[in-house]
TrEMBL record:
Residues 419-428 have a biased composition (Polar residues). It comes from Trichoderma lentiforme. Residues 372-428 are annotated as: Disordered. It comes from the Eukaryota. This is Uncharacterized protein. The lineage of its organism: Eukaryota, Fungi, Dikarya, Ascomycota, Pezizomycotina. Residues 59-92, 266-314 form a coiled coil. Keywords: Coiled coil.
Amino acid sequence: MAAEAPEPQIFANLHQDQATRDMSFAAPLNLDPLAQQQQQQNQIQIQIQIQAQAQAQAQAQAQAQARHQQQQQQQQQQQQQLQQTLHQQQLQQHYLQQQYLQQQHQQQQQQLQQQALYHQQQQQQQQMNGMNGANMGAVMPAPTPAGHQAELNYIYGMVEELSRQLADNRRVTEDIVSGLGRVRNKAKAQGLANGDVISSAADDINAQESNLDSIISELSESFDRAKHSRDANAALLTQYANALSLMLKQFHDYKSKHVADVAAWHRSYRAQLDEARRENSRLREQIWEMQTHAARANESLRKFRRKYDEDEERFAKRVDDTALRQEVRFWKRMAMPELEDDDPYWSGDDDIIDEAEKERLRELELRAAQEQHMVDSQGEDSDEQHHLSSMGMMGGIAMQREESSGQILPIPPPRPLSAASSTGSTGR
């Protein structure tokens, strides 16, 4: 731009020389050939200088236009980069806001679930203890976990920092756009061409050129901070996504394990229940079979007893045997009246009781007397009759003589059928 300053004076001198030559109406001087040749050389040199100056001016204009275009391109690139950065920051801010809102919504849902669970537990406790619900205190919301609240605060701080950077970038972009608008409006209002606009804006650009470095450094620093913030946010989001995926994986693993354990427990319970039912059915069938066999055996015993008792021939033999025994006893007494009744000679007779049988009868009498005394002390006559009848069911009564006392003896059980009843053994 330094070469552009002397251009107006050079052009003014050239125009002045040309005007003086055109306005000199005097007759040309007759110069010698050396003067004419020198004049021609001067004209050639002047033309060469004019062409060189025109070329220099054209080169300067081309350089200025190229520099202006390069600056415009750089400004457009910076504007595009700023717009992209702003767009990315807006997207990141929107994504972080969505994440923050989702986390707040999840936190609210967790708090509502905890409140509902606490309220349900309180209602169950009231129902179990029989307490009145009006006397219970108000349900307090559950506190947020410390780690979760710290993460929310950190994310909220990052959102505020990104919002501030986005506002700064928006302000810088608006300044650049407003400057371009001023240049465009100036050119449109004054009707200037591109070259005039460039030459008029050169001073402004040169004046602002000193501030461009500081602006570029500030923008570069802001851009670096934005990139660093973007990388940090991306790393944080990656860590958050990894933590969420790990947590979801652990939840799914726990759910699958819990479902498998519950299914296995249900299968085991059903198998044990089925086995117990089969065992119960088998035992019931065995009981039914035992009852059936017992009923058949009882029926067979009843038939046998009935047939045995209804046998007339056996009954006749029993009567005849009893009669013959009484007859033999009578003739023995008649034949030997000098023998006493307790003589061992009569031990083989049916009306004489041996020593062992007498001892057993004495024990039975003593036991019956004790029971009779207890019954009399309690005043329960019905129990006495029941006891006597039960004793009578135990067996027959031993044969006694007519001289025996009139005391009623308890009914002893029958003597076992053995060889002692016919061989005369005393049982000693």
